[in-house]
Amino acid sequence: MDKVIRRAATARKQAQAKAFRQQKTTELVDRQQVLRVRKDYNKALVTNLKESRKARWEDWQKGALAPMRHVGLDATSYGSVDVAMMHPPAIPKHLRRKAILFAEGDRVCVIRGRNKGQINEITQVNHESETVIVKDVNVADIHVPEWAKKSMNIQSDTMPQPLPISIDNVRHVIALDVNNTTKDHIVQHAYAAGPYMERSSDSKLPRFSRYVSGLDIEIPWPTEPEPQFDVGEFDTRGNEVSKVSWIPSLDAPPFPSTVIDELRNKFSRFRTRHDEEYVKKMVMEEYRQEYLKSQTLLTPKGEIKQAKALRSAATKAQALDSNGNVKMEKATAKFIDDFMKMQLNQAQPVSDKAPKASKARQTRKTRKTPEAQVTA
Predict the structure, then answer these.
(1) DSSP for residue 195
(2) How far, in Å, are 268, 320, 321 from residue 325 at the CA level?
(3) Which of 9, 42, 48, 158 is the 20 to 30 Å CA partner of 76?
C-alpha cells in the first residue's frame, strides 16, 4: 500500500511539474509573439513616417522636377498615416502589468524616440496595449476614411492626431520643493501601494496610491471633474426622489403586496403566500406526475418495477417502529440482556457475599493435636 501511495504522489508531482513547464513555455511564446507584433507595428509606423518626410523633402528640393504625387486617387491624402496606426496591438491579459501608474491629466516627459524631451499632459490611457496619448506630442497626419468623414462631419482627407506612445517611453513630471524653490523633476521609477481609496463608479482612476521609488513621496492623482448628467424626458427628478410618497400606518402592511414579487420569484417554493398562477402551475404539475405514473404502469416492465417498489417499501415499513426507528432483532436484544447481566454480576460489591473465614481460623481447624497424630 505504501508503494502505491508513493507512486501516486510521484505521478502527481510529475504532472504538476509538466503543467508548470507547459505554462511557462506558453507564456514565453506569447511574450515573443507580442514583441514581434509590436516590433512590426513600430517598423511600419517609422517606415510610413520616413517615406512621408522623404517625399516632402524631394518635393521641396527638386521643385518643378519633383514627381507629381499630389495627383490621382491619393492626391489629397498623400503623406498621411493609415488610421490603423492609431490602434496598437493589444497585449494578452496574462502578460499585462498589474498596475499602470499613469492616468489622464498626468504631466509626463517622453524619454525615447523622435519626441524625446517633450513634456505635456496625457489625454488617453489604453490599458490593453499599455500605451498613452500625450497632447501635441508624436503628431502625424492621419488619413480619414470615408465612413469617418460622415460620422465626424470632417471635410478634409487628413487630420493631425497624436499617435500612441508606449508607457515605457514616458516618465512622470512632478513639482518638488528644493531649497524653497519649486522645480519640475522627472520620476525615473515609481511603484503602487496603499492606502486604497474609494472611487465612484464613473471614475477612471485606480484605487491604489503611487509613490516615487527610494523617496517614498506620493504622486497625487489628477483631479477629475464632477460628472454632468443631462436630465432626460423619462428620468426621475431629484425632488421627486426625496419626496415622501408613503407613510406607514397600523391599518396597512409595512409594504404593498406587490413588493414581495420583487424580493422573491413569483413561483418560488420558499414563499409563504402564492398567487393563483403558482397554485394553477402546481396543480398542473401534479396532474402531469399522475399521468406519467399511469403511463409507466401500462407496460409490463413498469408494472414489475412498481410492484418491486411497493414490496420494498412495505418491508422497510415493517422494520420500523411507531417512532420511525429500526426495530431490534430478538437475538440482538437477548445478547444485550445477557451482556448487561454479566456486567452487573461482575460489578456487585464484596460485602453482599458470604463472609470468608480468616486465615488464622482456617489454620487452627486444619492443625491436629499430638494425641490425634499418635493415634493415627
Answers:
(1) P
(2) 33, 5, 6
(3) 42
In angstroms, the CA 42 to CA 50 distance is: 12
> Does residue 146 share a domain with residue 14?
yes
The C-alpha cell 519649486 sits at: 182
Instruction: Outline where the chain has alpha helix (H).
Output: 2-62, 146-152, 238-242, 259-263, 276-297, 300-318, 330-346, 359-366, 370-375
CB atoms under 10 Å from CB of 270, counted, come to 6
Instruction: Look at residue 32 and give its three-state secondary structure.
Output: helix
Residue 334 in domain: no
Whether 178 and 48 map to the same domain: the answer is: yes
Q: Is the pLDDT of residue 374 over 50?
A: no
Q: Does 7 reside within a domain?
A: yes
Question: Nearest 5°: phi and psi at 329?
Answer: -70, 155
**CA–CA distance, 336 with 342 (Å, rounded to integer):** 10
- Which residues lie across from 176 on neighbouring strands? 183
**Cβ neighbours, 10 Å, residue 192:** 16
- The pLDDT of 14-26, averaged and rounded, is 88
Chain segment 154-182, per-residue pLDDT in tens = 777 788 889 899 899 999 999 888 788 88
Contact 224, 204 (CB under 8 A): yes
Reported as a single tens digit per residue, the pLDDT across 24-42 is 888 888 878 888 887 887 7
Three-class secondary structure of residue 212 per DSSP: strand
First to last CA, the chain: 76
Global pTM reads: 0.52
Helix, strand, or coil here: 229? coil
93 within 8 A of 129, measured Cβ to Cβ? no
Nearest-angstrom CA–CA distance, 109 and 113: 11
- Domain closes at, from 240, 269, 297: 297
> 312, 104, 320: which is closest to 225 by C-alpha?
104
